[in-house]
Description:
It is a single chain. This protein is an alpha/beta fold and 253 residues long. The protein folds into two domains: 13-124, Glutaredoxin, CATH 3.40.30; 130-251, no CATH class. The protein has helices at residues 13-19, 53-67, 83-90, 115-124, 130-138, 158-167, 174-177, 180-184, 188-206, 208-216, 224-235, 239-251, and strands spanning 34-37, 41-45, 75-79, 96-98, 104-107, 152-153, 156-157. Strands 1-2-3-5-4 form a five-stranded mixed sheet, with helices on one face. Strands 6-7 form a two-stranded antiparallel ribbon. Strand 6 (152-153) and strand 7 (156-157) form a beta hairpin. Helix 4 crosses helix 5 (130-138) and helix 10 packs across helix 11. The longest helix has 19 residues, at 188-206. It binds zinc ion. Residues 2-3, 114, 118, 134, 137 line the site of zinc ion.
Amino acid sequence: MSSRMGWVPFVLSSAIAACDASTSGPGPNDQLSARIESPTHSYRFSASDVVDTATHEAHYRWLLGALGVDPAVKLEYHKYRDRAHLQRMTGRATNGFAEPGTPRFHTIWPWDNHEGVHALVTLTLGHPPALFNEGVAVAHQTNPRAGDTVARWNGEPVHAIAARLDAAGQLPTLAVLLESPSFFSHAEGVVYPVAGSWVRYLIDERGMAPFESYLSNASFNASAAQTRSAFLTAYGVTLDAEWERWREFLDAQ
Ligand SMILES: [Zn+2]
């Protein structure tokens, strides 16, 4: 459910299909011809597919309250049967991705708690470096319809994963995670839950106001120095000092 959005441009499927001999083009059953319209979403999926709108919208209602934002537009949920279907239609080999700054996201899952977060955050708050951008998405990977509002990665609470990595001396350094290309060059199963724990901590312990302030001055391709400067302006403490406070928080978990 992760995406590597932001530094790879969205490419029309026809352009990719034409130069990738291993991938055949979309067939007639691939078109997202089925539609469901709700007050908050346009769902687009193929005729043989299903979308769990009740679970998805329960998460979305919770998310709007958690972030305190209003996108003022419907999000566009593009649902694919599987990775091969998504790849034929979009040219991307992934489980899902969002198109930053637009209402559109794409996923193979019948309900979503990650790509839609990207869509909502980049529409309303900003598009920060991957540590914060993936972090805010993973920090909201919950299932409110099932009564579960704990942020999880592959079923495990993100703070538990980060605490275990830190205790084992395997927590990536801030320097490694701070710039988006470096973030994505490391193992997804490490950097995504670590980022989710970090942002969950920031929002829970410091509140939404400084987080919103930081995002309003952040950019996905910011340098480490630019991110440290923007963080200090928003939080009034250095990023490095707050990172160490988060690790103390993990110790106490
Ligand atoms: Zn993501």
